[in-house]
Q: What sequence folds into this?
């Protein structure tokens, strides 16, 4: 088996707060393969951004990885120092498109200057080489090449977002982490950005970790995905598997809650309650209070990610993973027959 | 005010222009800056018990439209009619009556509730202002209606003790407690998570059906609007470019912009091959943009005639729909620009 590009193994991340240790990510495991687009979906506060920060050594001062491992191309990186992250990984191996990219460009520097600085810190490219590469990237993301010397304010929001993508790509990293890359954009602009991300994918040279709350973006643009709820990974699989055979109660309900433009008359599913705040060790399923299929066991210990139906590529963290989907379908049979057919 | 059987709330050719900031040099040279044409000739009519959506991208003027409807901005031109009465002629008493009957739900529940008032106080305030009795009873009723059960549990809470979904329910309760005739909702679910969003959307659409209330629902997100609204108006740069019943708009959009907007919405199905947008560029700034179709610079079907402002005409074969696009009518050497809906003519090309 080939080495995965990025691998998280039983990862736990905690933040130190005035009320004790807050567990943002609990026992999370997933792998991203080379040149694969991988989506991580969950509600706000579920720990998805924390995972990306942990992978880049960018956790806030009060946060740290308290257990588990992160491997990049087989090498453990969870104990890397700031210097190691800078020399080995950031920008040239793993680059990051942050949430709200408009605010992540330096307003006082031309884009080309920013690129030159990144290249100087992380590689031994000359300034001209760096700018030339940025020009190529501008072309790929659909911006006019000659505008590399513009200042950020000369671009519109969507163009700034694409400029950030160009910066994230120009050192040819193997992994692109995109944290809600289009949340601040309008739908047409969002579509333009994903059009370019999809074109870049065709070259097969880069993998992406896409963090979003929008499950339809993941379904459209990713190969595999994980669903997260309050720090725990609920389910992982190919997008087709998750779409057709979701086995975790949260995945099932999340899918039903999502509006689909094709069926405006369909009743939207509702997930009761709110995700909990996890303090200290998480020894329960974090979805238990919202789950219609919960059993006492769910309160007593945390379910681990186990293959469902013997499929190693489809792990689900639910004690009742083999029966919930069937129960759900039986309950909703009448609905499905009368129009919710998908 | 007099009663009348027509639309509850109606705008006729409504315009709202803003001045740009003028520097001292401009003032000295008596230079007039061009106006920002935020809302530019909008005519819509909301019938009782109807819910209409206005969708468009950020900057298209939808929030300005809402604020002008609410009376927070003075219209530059055009009329707002509430039950057939022109709001420009309203006196103090009429305005008070208007504000009781037209309520608003804001986008961000964290920002639009007073952090120092308990939920009871928040809901009490409008009742006091309008001298309505049986306050406690009404508050409990309305909390039950927005499904905050049991109401007693929430009455003495402060906004900081509640989640976003619960707060948005309080906002809805605050809007409904005066039993208004019209609700104006400005992106009420865009700050919420998907699981909460679904419950708020369901609640809104139930309440609109149950209670005697009409709603204008403003959003950039077509997929949520379509769950709540009977009719959708598509807005682009200050103008309504298309207006149609929800299902008809989604199935068969006429205006090239509506088509692009609908095509760009992601579909939660990995097998559905939607294809990406072919539209390039960005929305213009609505500053001094003069005449002509607002969408022409980005439009795949652009023609010479698009330099003229298209009429907002009925769609052939369906008088329930309107579209402002030159593709849909003949142009016998006419030059005038108009927003009026004159008699319909044959469409010369059918789009796609």
A:
């Amino acid at each position: 088996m080939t080495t995965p590009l990025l691998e998280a193994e039983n990862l736990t991340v905690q933040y130190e707060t005035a009320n004790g240790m807050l567990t943002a990510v609990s026992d999370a495991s997933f792998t991203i393969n080379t040149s694969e687009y991988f989506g991580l979906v969950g509600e706000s506060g579920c720990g998805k951004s924390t995972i990306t920060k942990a992978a880049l050594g960018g956790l806030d001062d009060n946060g740290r990885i308290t257990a588990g491992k992160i491997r990049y191309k087989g090498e453990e990186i969870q104990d890397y120092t700031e210097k190691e992250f800078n020399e080995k990984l950031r920008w040239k191996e793993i680059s990051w498109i942050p949430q709200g990219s408009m605010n992540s460009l330096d307003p006082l520097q031309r884009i080309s200057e920013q690129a030159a600085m990144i290249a100087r810190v992380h590689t031994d490219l000359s300034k001209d080489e760096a700018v030339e590469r940025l020009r190529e990237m501008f072309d790929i993301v659909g911006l006019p090449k000659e505008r590399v010397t513009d200042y950020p304010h000369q671009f519109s929001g969507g163009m700034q977002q694409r400029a950030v993508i160009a910066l994230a790509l120009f050192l040819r990293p193997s992994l692109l982490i995109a944290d809600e890359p289009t949340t601040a954009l309008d739908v047409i602009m969002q579509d333009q950005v994903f059009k370019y991300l999809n074109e870049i994918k065709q070259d097969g040279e880069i993998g992406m970790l896409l963090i979003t709350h929008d499950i339809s973006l993941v379904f459209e643009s990713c190969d595999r995905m994980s669903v997260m709820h309050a720090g725990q990974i609920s389910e992982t699989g190919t997008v087709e598997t998750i779409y057709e055979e979701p086995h975790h109660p949260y995945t099932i309900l999340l899918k039903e809650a999502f509006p689909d433009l094709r069926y405006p008359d369909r009743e939207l599913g509702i997930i009761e309650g709110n995700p909990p705040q996890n303090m200290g060790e998480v020894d329960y399923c974090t979805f238990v209070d919202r789950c219609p299929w919960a059993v006492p066991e769910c309160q007593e210990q945390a379910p681990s990610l186990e293959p469902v139906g013997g499929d190693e590529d489809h792990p689900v963290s639910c004690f009742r993973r083999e029966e919930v989907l069937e129960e759900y379908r039986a309950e909703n049979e009448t609905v499905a027959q009368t129009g919710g057919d998908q | 005010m007099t009663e009348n059987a027509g639309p509850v709330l109606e705008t006729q050719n409504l315009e709202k222009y803003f001045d740009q900031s003028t520097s001292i040099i401009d003032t000295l040279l008596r230079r007039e800056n061009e106006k920002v044409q935020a809302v530019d000739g909008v005519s819509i009519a909301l019938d009782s018990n109807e819910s209409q959506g206005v969708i468009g991208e950020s900057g298209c003027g939808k929030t300005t439209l809402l604020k002008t409807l609410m009376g927070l901005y003075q219209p530059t031109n055009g009329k707002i009619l509430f039950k057939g009465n022109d709001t420009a002629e309203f006196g103090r008493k009429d305005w008070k009556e208007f504000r009781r009957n037209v309520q608003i739900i804001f986008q961000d529940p964290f920002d639009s509730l007073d952090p120092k008032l308990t939920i009871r106080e928040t809901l009490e305030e409008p009742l006091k202002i309008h001298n309505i009795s049986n306050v406690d009873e009404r508050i409990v009723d309305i909390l039950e209606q927005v499904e905050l059960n049991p109401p007693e549990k929430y009455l003495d809470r402060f906004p900081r003790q509640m989640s976003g979904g619960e707060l948005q329910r309080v906002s809805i309760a605050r809007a409904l407690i005066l039993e208004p005739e019209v609700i104006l909702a400005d992106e009420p679910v865009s700050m919420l998570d998907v699981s909460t969003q679904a419950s708020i959307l369901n609640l809104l659409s139930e309440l609109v059906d149950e209670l005697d209330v009409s709603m204008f629902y403003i959003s950039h997100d077509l997929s949520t609007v379509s769950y709540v609204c009977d009719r959708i108006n598509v807005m682009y740069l200050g103008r309504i470019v298309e207006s149609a019943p929800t299902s008809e708009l989604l199935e068969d959009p006429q205006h090239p912009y509506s088509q692009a907007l609908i095509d760009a919405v992601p579909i939660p199905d990995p097998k559905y091959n939607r294809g990406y947008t072919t539209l390039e560029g960005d929305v213009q700034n609505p500053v001094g943009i003069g005449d002509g179709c607002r969408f022409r610079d980005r439009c795949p079907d652009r023609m010479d005639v698009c330099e003229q402002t298209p009429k907002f005409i009925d769609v052939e074969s369906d008088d329930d729909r309107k579209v402002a696009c030159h593709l849909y009518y003949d142009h016998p050497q006419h030059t005038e620009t108009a927003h009026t809906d004159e008699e319909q003519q044959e469409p010369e090309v059918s789009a796609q």
Q: What stands out?
A: The interface with chain A takes residues 57-58, 163, 165, 193-199, 201-202, 220-224, 226-227, 246-247, 250, 260-272, 274, 276-277, 279-280, 282-283 of chain B (CB under 8 Å). Residues 334-352 of chain B have pLDDT under 50 and may be disordered.
